[in-house]
Amino acid sequence: MRVSDMKIGDEAVIKKVTAEEPIRSRLYAMGITRGNRIKLLDHTLKKQTWEVEIEGTRVALRDEEAKSIEVEK
Description:
This protein is α+β, with helices and mostly antiparallel strands and 73 residues long. The chain has one domain (3-72): Ferrous iron transport protein A (FeoA) (SH3 type barrels, Roll), CATH 2.30.30. It is 16% helix and 41% strand. It has a five-stranded antiparallel sheet. Strand 2 (37-43) and strand 3 (49-54) form a beta hairpin. The longest helix has 7 residues, at 23-29.
């Protein structure tokens, strides 16, 4: 499952980040790394932007970024 498949309020553990550089480095810098917990807080109506909480910090992700983060509940 990917972040883009989660429902609002769902929490999961990050298993893998498949994004290419430099996006991967940006995600790692925000704490989006394997083993961390992530919670989906909200998304836009067309699911183009995703708001997540990671390590107590709220982060906005673009659709391509949300699709590159594999998670497990």
